[in-house]
Amino acid sequence: MPMDKLLYVAAKEGNMEVLEQYKDKFATELTPYNNTVLHVAAQHDGFNRPKSPIGFLDMAGPNLFFSLNCNGDTFIHVAARNGNLEIIKAFINYTKNCGGLGIVRDIEADIQKLLSITNNDGNTALHEAVMHGRRSDDMVELLVKEDAAFSHPPNKAGKSPLYLAVERGDNVSVELILNNCASPSYAGPIGATALHAVVMHPFPTTVYNDSCA
């Protein structure tokens, strides 16, 4: 069923009063790209401070968390791509506070399962955060710390998040991945690694002037 315009705007703006009226239809109301209300909310800033998305996530329920749009994106992919840190934080807090999603063996594993899902391009949420870079530092830090044991393997283009960060000269993301992932993938395309990317895409260097005035 095509998503009602009022519901779309409510999800975009974080209007809980209208969302409450539509909550029984969340699973069937979709945009032409198969986005759910969670995808729409993740794409926009309607639930950023001072509004909290916790109540909205509770209304949507765990079954909607794993819904995929036409690109195979969960709402977490969309949030990471658009720099919507608040909704990912809220998802993590919601899952911990309600004792898990009942999907896998424990609370941490439930969170890690959703964060590690790949879309049609083979991208995890971390790939999206590194590639799009909108308010990405805090996003990258959150994603890598929530699953420090996950290696974050390459996407279908053969690029791991670490390789992408090096390729983009994003030294902050490189440091966050290296400092927080136990064994991150260095993989790049056609047999290359992040070390090759350092040579091909050298980081800008800061010149320090130590001379006395």
From TrEMBL:
ANK repeats lie at residues 71-93, 121-155. Gene3D superfamilies: Ankyrin repeat-containing domain (1.25.40.20). This is Ankyrin repeat protein RF_0381. Keywords: ANK repeat. PROSITE patterns: ANK_REP_REGION, ANK_REPEAT. It comes from Nicotiana tabacum (Common tobacco). SUPFAM superfamilies: Ankyrin repeat. The gene is LOC107769450. Coiled coil: none annotated. InterPro entries: Ankyrin_rpt (IPR002110), Ankyrin_rpt-contain_sf (IPR036770). It comes from the Eukaryota.
